[in-house]
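In this supplementary section we document a worked example of the pipeline. Step one takes a protein sequence of length 267 as its only input; no multiple sequence alignment statistics are reported here. Step two produces a three-dimensional model, which step three serialises into structure tokens for compact storage. The input and output of this example are shown verbatim.
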Amino acid sequence: MTLPALGLGTFRLKGQAVIDSVRNALDVGYRAIDTAQIYGNEAEVGQALAESDVSRDDVYLTTKIWISEFQPDALIASLEASVQKLRTDRVDLTLIHWPSPDDAVPMETYLPALADAKARGLTRAIGISNFTIAQTRRAIGILGADQITTNQVEIHPYLQNRLLVPFLQEQGIHITAYMSLAYGEVIKDPVIQAIAGRHQATAAQVALAWALQQGFAVIPSSTKRANLASNLEAARLRLTDEDLAQIAKLDRGHRLANPEGIAPAWD
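The serialised model returned by step three reads:
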């Protein structure tokens, strides 16, 4: 399986809320689910998948290794635990959630361990998340660009990452955009709303279509079945060159995912 263009994100969803979100998403047609060790919801995601009528083989399942698990033995053990919580025999994609802060654990330690997890069959593919250009270059030197399925980074109309994006595209590394709606901020934008009106679409569909038309994968989350179904329709929306030019002007470097002590020095 290749990484689907539109999947379900589960950040900040806990307990019954994430179970219902995953169940509804699968019901309306999603076939990619994104979670992470630090989200604390892998067991609930696994429950929803197990209880679904959708075959596990038809779902592209992603999780992410947290920074506390970067020593080789810990990384493998933590992924084994994630696989068990998710009630499966493997995940489809495993990412390094954040590069080790201040290089406390060198990439040369944890990236080969991630590759070892793939060799052991715990994950079908591997990748990175929140890596800068310099960090991605280093990862390429360790793994090879062809082994890095994606770099999952924050991208939305208010944060367009105009240095990182072309670099990743030049390297042939797929981009997964998270926080595509900027916690709902961009759907309130009058430019986005005007474009939505012209297309008889929702503002959320416009923001997602903007990312999809650039070749990014997106993983929006929602607890509402109607919104889940609506977001899925973004794949059918085609924005015009004028629409894209207007959205390009909205970039303001507005970064939301920037945890102190963890985030790298952004490009």
